[in-house]
Design brief:
Helix content is 64%, strand content 10%. It contains 4 helices and 2 strands.
Length: 77
């Protein structure tokens, strides 16, 4: 879920809950359980009015740093 949200946000695309569940190929019940967990640990936020799921700024920064460090380590090999 986090990687899909990262990619969607990087492309400036909105992601609804149903689209996210489709992208990760999970049922609504399983997706909702994971989404609630990610909200509780402050990795994502859900705007019910806009039907949009987004990474929090902290999660976005962490994902960016992780992916950049992975790219650097792969370039060293």
């Amino acid at each position: 879920m986090l990687l899909h949200l990262f990619v969607e946000q990087s492309a400036h695309q909105k992601t609804s809950e149903s689209r996210l569940y489709h992208l990760v190929d999970v049922s609504h019940m399983v997706g909702k359980r994971w989404l609630n967990h990610l909200v509780q640990i402050h990795h994502v936020s859900v705007d019910d009015d806009e039907d949009e799921v987004t990474l929090t700024s902290t999660a976005l920064e962490r994902m960016t740093a992780f992916l950049e460090s992975e790219a650097l380590s792969r370039n060293r090999d």
